[in-house]
Amino acid sequence: MKKIKNYMNGTLNVPALPKLERKLKYNQMFKRKVFICNEIDMFMKGALLAAEAEIEMNLKRIDLVAAGFVNDYFKQNIKKEPYRKYLSWS
Amino acid sequence: MSDYTDQEIVDSLKNRENHVVAFIAKRFMPMISYLIKELRADFLEADDLFQDALMIIIKKIDSGEFILTAKFSTYLYAVCKHLIEYHLKRRDVQIRYLTVQDKEKYQEEDFSEVYDENLNHKLYQYYFNKLGMNCQEVLKMYWLDVPMKEIADKLGSTEGFIRKKKHECKKKLLELVLLNPDKVKSD
Questions:
Q1: pTM (2 decimals)?
Q2: What span, in angstroms and rounded, lies between the C-alpha atoms of A81 and A43?
Q3: For residue B163, what are the contacts with CB-CB under 8 A and spacing of at least 6?
Q4: Which positions ≥6 away from B100 have C-beta within 8 Å?
Q5: What CATH number was assigned to the domain covering residues B110-187?
Q6: Which of residues 9-28 of B touch A (CB under 8 A)?
Q7: How far is C-alpha B38 from the chain's CA centre?
Q8: Chain A residues with CB inside 8 Å of B140's CB?
Q9: What's the topology of domain B1-100?
Q10: What number of H helices and E strands is found in chain B?
Q11: Of A56, B38, B51, B138, which has the fewest CB atoms closer than 10 Å, so is most exposed?
């Protein structure tokens, strides 16, 4: 870790550079792999759930029901605060 | 995290039980994020949209007008879709009042990030379709949170084999996405 820090701020001896460069490159590649792996999971999960919902929404005309819900919400000018406290999830 | 049926979700929301909100968020947030991307409403936050949609549904549950005739996720999806459309319309009206310079600045924002994201999403779907049918089936069920045991039963296999298969398929998909051998480009 110390070597990497020194490498990053430019105070490390030159002979150690290639090994550290490889290490840094490997770390970056590994991080990228983990990131993309998680992103694939989230994206594909979202896409599949959305596709399922889209089909059912059109079949059972939930679209119209939802439109009514949203219209009522804006008409009634609902105060959000009383609901907010029940809606934390992290 | 335990699983809830749709009716349990509705009952829990009626009784203001917080744990079910965490469950819904974990399970359906990817769907909301996907919807935001699909409708090109990147200026919206998935968390905020989720909260507003849930508030609308709770209000309807409280009033006794909410009857489940489809999956809970379908209601959530439909409400989110209408909310996004509402925000998009409002945004269009706002843009009409911007000056030319403001508009240019507006359109330049985070272009590269959006470009990368679109390309990545295109790659995921493209290479997923390139996988074998077995792989696609296993991964689809895995992403839809079907338990491993159930996947194994459906495909007439063992749980261990399915776990291994899922791992291999994901590895293959990741390799294809990173290498992009077909040189897929963004639109």
A1: 0.81
A2: 31
A3: B148
A4: none
A5: 1.10.10
A6: 16, 18, 21-22, 24-26, 28
A7: 10
A8: 48
A9: Rna Polymerase Sigma Factor; Chain: A (1.10.1740)
A10: 9, 0
A11: B38
CA pseudo-torsion sign B82, B22, B4, B136: positive
With a cut of 70, which residues of chain B have pLDDT below it?
Answer: 1-2, 100-101, 103-111, 187
- DSSP 8-class letter at B131: S
Q: Tell me the pLDDT tens digit for each residue of B40-57.
A: 898 899 999 999 999 999
Token couple for B8: 């349990």
Residue B176 contacts residue B130 (beta carbons within 8 Å): yes
Higher-pLDDT residue of A83, B49: B49
Asked if residues B141 and B163 have their Cβ atoms less than 8 Å apart, the reply is: no
Could you give the angle at the alpha carbon of B183 between the alpha carbons of B182 and B187, nearest 5°? 120
Of B57, B73, B86, the CB nearest to A53: B73
Q: Tell me which residue has tokens 């970056």.
A: A28
Give residue-wise pLDDT tens across range B81-98: 999 999 999 888 888 877
Residue A11 phi, psi dihedral angles, 5° rounding: -105, 10
